[in-house]
Design a protein that fits this description.
Elements: E1 4-12, E2 17-24, E3 31-38, H1 41-52, E4 55-63, H2 70-77, E5 81-85, H3 101-114, H4 125-157, H5 171-178, H6 185-215, H7 222-228, H8 236-246, H9 255-261, E6 266-268, E7 277-280, H10 286-296, H11 307-315, H12 318-340, H13 345-374
Parallel strand pairs: 1-4, 4-5
Antiparallel strand pairs: 1-2, 2-3, 6-7
Helix pairs in contact: 4-6, 4-8, 7-13, 8-10, 9-13, 10-13, 12-13
Length: 375
């Protein structure tokens, strides 16, 4: 063990190689660039052993990105602290126009030592697996939407559009699609291939959704999923998607912190006596924000609990049911008040989504407190 007490180490990660920089502890500690190492567990472990022989304490960091959390889990497993840093919150000099791996690693380690970095929440491996499953389902839904648009465009080019109903992709619309005839064999083949692609996309969605339903009971957040399903607009799929993207809700001390994380708070550019607020920031997790906004459209209707929803409400804890019913009255009233003032429906729903995040936080706190009390 060397005489040095503390050091900070930063990785600029990539697919094959990681650039490494180190800073000694203290305000005037030396900052050095150590070079690049292979992005493999063996090379990382060798570097950490070498540094651990010289320093009593090591703190590591790297930017969140496509390389995932494997490096963080390896370093934590070796007994050292490692932060995965939010790239969008790294301070940058406006006039800096040079970017290299070396400069990135050196700049990152300086900010780590100064305590200027914001760490992201790192999920465990099971939570990450659930997140990947929900994202695969989201990708399948997007793929189905693209295929539907392609089929609609194909039919429109041939002067055919559905006029016998209000909405497409209903049973009536499906019967209309199956009744379409084309004179040329080439057009018939194209149409059948498009129909087959749509069916396969729908089957893929159904398989993934069933897998999610099967996986939730064994998940660590299964109890919270059940409680949140008492909320109007939240079913098992949307609730699971929200929780896999947001992660541990207990890390948000107040509802406002959760709203800010979801990017649902107004942007602001104020100086002196001038106060200017603009659209929502759209910061944070866009998948969670989009899911929350989609669920919020239910609150344009008066408060009620449908027959199918009643079963989910009864399965939730009493405190969660009370919060969910309070949310129905509050959010519907909020929507009505905003639309009466002339606000666009989309703007009103965004405001509802922001408050819905607060009710979700409240239910999470109730479930957490009940779990702690039961121990």
């Amino acid at each position: 063990m060397g005489d040095h007490s503390e050091a900070f180490v930063a990785f600029d990660t990539s697919k094959l190689r990681n650039a490494v920089a180190i800073a000694d502890g203290g305000r005037d500690g030396e900052v050095r660039y150590l070079g690049e190492i292979d992005n493999t567990p063996a090379a990382t472990a060798k570097l950490i052993r070498k540094l651990a022989d010289k320093y009593q304490g090591l703190t590591f960091c790297y930017e969140a990105g496509p390389t995932g959390y494997g490096l963080q889990r390896q370093i934590t497993g070796l007994g050292h602290s490692c932060q995965v840093v939010a790239p969008s919150l790294i301070p940058k000099k406006p006039g800096d126009r040079v970017k290299t791996n070396r400069r990135d690693a050196v700049g990152l380690v300086k900010l780590l030592r100064a305590g200027e970095l914001t760490a992201v929440w790192v999920p465990d491996e099971r939570h990450e697996a659930m997140r990947d499953l929900c994202r695969a389902r989201g990708a399948a839904v997007k793929d189905q939407r693209v295929k539907r648009q392609q089929l609609t465009a194909f039919l429109l080019r041939h002067g055919r559009h559905f006029v016998d109903g209000k909405n497409n992709w209903t049973k009536k619309h499906e019967r209309w699609l199956l009744s379409q005839k084309f004179e040329h064999a080439e057009h018939r083949i194209v149409f059948e291939e498009m129909m087959l692609a749509m069916r396969q996309a729908q089957e893929r969605i159904e398989r993934l959704e069933q897998t999610i339903r099967d996986a939730v009971p064994g998940w660590s957040l299964a109890e919270l999923v059940t409680a949140l399903m008492a909320m109007r607009g939240l079913d098992l799929i949307s609730t699971t998607t929200l929780l896999t993207e947001i992660g541990d809700l207990s890390r948000f001390r107040t509802p406002r912190e959760l709203m800010g994380y979801l990017g649902l708070v107004p942007s602001e550019h104020s100086t002196g006596a001038s106060v200017k607020r603009g659209p929502i920031t759209k910061a944070g997790n866009n998948r969670a924000r989009r899911t929350l906004v989609e669920c919020s459209w239910c609150y344009q209707h008066p408060p009620r609990v449908g027959k199918d929803k009643q079963v989910k409400v009864e399965a939730a804890p009493r405190a969660a049911r009370e919060i969910a019913w309070k949310a129905q009255h509050r959010l519907h009233g909020r929507y009505r008040a905003l639309t009466r003032r002339g606000k666009l429906r989309t703007v009103a729903i965004t405001a509802v989504a922001r408050e819905l995040a607060g009710f979700i936080w409240a239910i999470s706190r109730v479930v957490t407190d009940a779990r702690v009390a039961a121990k």
